[in-house]
Amino acid sequence: MTQSGVSQHIRKLEDAVGTILVDRSDNHITLTAAGERMFHEAQPVLAALQRLSDSVTGESEYTGTVRIMTPGSAGLILHDRLLSLQLQHAGLIINLRFAPNSDIEHAISGRDTDIGLMTRLPEDPQCAFRRISEERLLLVTPVNAQVDDINSLNALGFIDHPDGAHHANLLLSSNFTDYQQHSQLRRSGYCNQISLILEPVSRGLGYTILPENAVNAFQQQDKIEVQPLAHPVSEPLYLVWRQHHYHARAVANVMEKVENWLSV
After folding, report:
1. pLDDT tens sequence across 48-69
2. 135-235 shares the fold of 60-133+236-262
3. CA–CA separation, 142 and 208 (whole Å)
4. Among candidate residues 114, 85, 109, 132, the one with its CA nearest the CA of residue 248
5. Domain ranges in the chain?
């Protein structure tokens, strides 16, 4: 539709409900308080209409492409379950991408993905979110490594990854008084594949910090060691989507599944 056509429809809707739904000042379009209520209360109504249409036409509630972006640890949990869901629904196509927080936030705000999972709060005002879970962060070293302070960690070397700085700031700042910032860590490697980050650790090339599910998924548990820490640290997990965006039925259904699978 043209912009004038959209504006005309909005004005008709405002006339029908007898209140202003959109603030048009300063050449920006934002929802008023009444518009926010209209948007949120309309969601179940629209969903019910879609279900009615689906029941009449016989269309599956899981039809179409659903784009999901997630950090690695949550992705390891979701991957098999999403494949099983896709096998149950012939019309469903799952597009799953593993990415760091910053890329996920950018994709949500730019409409390049439908569902995002992040381990920090999004900063972009276009992103809506809710906290659904948390997961322990673990300091993982080669077997029999001695860890007393940052110097002993630097002797091992840090196997960095896309969320390495974020994880180090959360975990090390709570457990090592001599830790100040990620840049003081000596890096001995880098890997951006969640399933491979522990491989150099298992070969004695350094240590890393990862969420618990990613550590538990590593096949060679006898070659790595999780260091005990005085102050355990957990990382939050947020379900993220674009603000004021109506989701297709399949997207809404998959989002509900994802939240149920990951919630604690």
Report:
1. 777 676 666 555 688 889 999 9
2. yes
3. 10
4. 114
5. 3-56, 60-133+236-262, 135-235
Asked: is 60-133+236-262 a CATH 3.40.190.10 domain? The reply is yes
Which two structure tokens, joined as six digits, stand for 96? 């799953």
DSSP class of residue 183?
G
| Nearest alpha carbon to residue 223 among 204, 197, 196 | 204
Closest CA to 62 of 248, 255, 188, 250: 250
| Bridge partner residues of 29 (DSSP) | none
Q: State yes or no: pLDDT of 9 exceeds 80.
A: yes
- Cα dihedral 174, 78, 216, 211, rounded to 10, equals -10
% of the chain residues with pLDDT over 70: 95
List, in sequence order, every residue forming a beta bridge with 68; answer none if it has no partner.
Answer: 96, 115
Nearest 5°: CA angle at 187, between 181 and 190?
115
**42: part of which helix (H) or strand (E)?**
helix 33-57
CA distance 149 to 227: 12
| CATH architecture for segment(s) 3-56 | Orthogonal Bundle (1.10)
What gap in Å lies between CA 4 and CA 26, rounded to an integer?
A: 17
Is domain 135-235 given the CATH code 3.40.50.720 in the classification? no
Secondary structure of residue 159 in the 3-state scheme: strand
Question: Hey, which residues does 133 pair with through a beta bridge?
Answer: 237
Q: Dig out the tokens for 133 from the structure.
A: 């879970």
